[in-house]
Amino acid sequence: MALAEQRETTDGISLAMPRDYLALMKPRVMSLVVFTAFVGLYLAPGGAGGAIHPVIGAIAILCIAVGAGASGALNMWYDADIDAVMSRTAGRPIPAGRVAPGEALAFGLVLAAFSVAMLGLLVNLLAAALLAFTIFFYVVVYTMWLKRATPQNIVIGGAAGAFPPMIGWAAATGSLGLEPVILFAIIFLWTPPHFWALALVKRADYARAGIPMMPNVAGPRSTQNQILAYAVALAGVGLLPWVAGFAGPIYGLLAVLLGAEFVRRSFAVWRMDAADPAMVPARRLFAFSIVHLFALFATLLAEAAFGGLAGSA
């Protein structure tokens, strides 16, 4: 790595570039958080250009984005030791020496406090409380406790990534209901097969870092079995927005097709020889899972925005 890209601290003064702090916020993860939160806000009564003022809605989404960035920064601060020994994460700002751990900690704490305070002051207290709990759950429960303690880390910790639609709904309504709980359940069931597909591919990395991911503790075969089981459950839960009446027939049809394809790809992973270093089915499932979740939520958003195809919100 070139010296200009190292940007290490000199005489106590940070020379980190803005892109390094952006990287701390895990922008790819943040984008998914923002998108699912926006769908929750938009689907809520009054959210789609109704009772909630557009400026307040924008503030809510901004606060959720900043809160997600805070979680990412605090996660990278705590996990810097294991990030340094994993090929997938060794180039992150802290292990690469571009940001000092103390700077990342301060950055994350300031972002967390700012996002929660602004959401509470400018939107409502329920949304702020949910955001605060989500940050706490991801940083303390998942990162500091579960990740290094149990192969169920992704299953339980995945709840943190499933809360954004509930926060968006609460921002628009000041309350919760069945609809955001269903959106939570979709992301919650989606998370284990999504990450376990990656864990199968990167299990040597996780073993080197001492992280008890499912393939390293229970073995690839048990992981493949669980991926298939979660895929079947996800295919069923993915239909619930249509069954519950807040999604229309286009969503229902797409959920059937996407759910069937998710199961088909998971079955290919189940049949896969775990000794094959290429792990092609697992790589394909990981890539498709991102498309799957985005397509489901994008269709919910499109139905709400164009033509009122959803049954009743």
State the secondary-structure class.
Answer: mainly alpha
CATH architecture of the largest domain: Orthogonal Bundle
Mean pLDDT: 89
- Per the principal axes of the C-alpha atoms, what is the gross shape? flat
Are there runs of 5+ residues with pLDDT below 50, and where? Answer: 1-12, 309-313
* Secondary structure: number of strands: 0
CATH third-level topology of the largest domain: Tetracycline Repressor, domain 2
Output the helix-strand order: HHHHHHHHHHHHHHHHH
* Major beta-sheet overview: none
Ends distance: 53 Å
The helix content is: over 70%
The total tally of domains equals: 2
Q: How would you describe what is shown here?
A:
The termini are far apart. This protein is an all-alpha fold and 313 residues long. The radius of gyration is 20 Å and the shape is flat. The chain is 72% helix and 0% strand.
Topology, element by element:
Elements lengths: L2 H4 L11 H7 L2 H17 L10 H25 L1 H4 L17 H22 L2 H21 L7 H5 L1 H4 L1 H10 L4 H24 L1 H7 L4 H4 L2 H18 L2 H4 L5 H23 L8 H26 L8
Helix pairs in contact: 2-4, 3-4, 3-10, 3-17, 4-6, 4-7, 4-10, 6-7, 7-10, 10-11, 11-14, 11-17, 14-16, 16-17
